Amino acid sequence: MKHLKALFGLAIVVSVFYLAFVLIPIYYNNYSFQDELDNQARMAVYSQTTPEQVQDILAKKAKDLEIPLTADQIHVVKMGGDITITTRYTVNVHTPVKDFDITFEPSSKNKRI
Question: Which residues lie closer than 8 Å to 109 by C-beta, 6 or more apart?
Fold first, then answer.
């Protein structure tokens, strides 16, 4: 019985490490993309960049981070001194037991001072 408990405990530990190995890069990439989205929102308020240019910059960053996102899925609204950037994407996670989806909705809003 002790060996069975030890094997079960080991299986749980291995499963947790495996899920961390699979999920941490996905969440880190989302964090990095959100950071770039915030930076672009800050810079776009004070520069003459068009919404299309912001979309292209963010789409390139998403591609670099291996995020399944195109420029058409990034919505940029620039009116006067305000800018709003929103997007939504889903990442499919494959595990030996089950596949599941994680949906992210990064967004940013900035106003000129």
Answer: 41, 82, 83, 84, 85
- Name the DSSP class of 47: S
**Secondary structure element (H or E) that encloses residue 103, with its range:** strand 100-104
pLDDT tens digit sequence for 2-12: 788 889 889 89
> 107: closest CA among 48, 43, 41?
41
DSSP H helical ranges for the chain: 2-46, 51-64
Predicted confidence at residue 35, as pLDDT, reads: 97
Q: From residue 1, how far is each of 10, 13, 15, 35, 80 by CA, in Å?
A: 14, 18, 21, 50, 70
Residue type, 19: L
Task: Tell me the C-alpha distance between 68 and 30, whole Å.
Answer: 11
Which residues lie across from 9 on neighbouring strands?
none
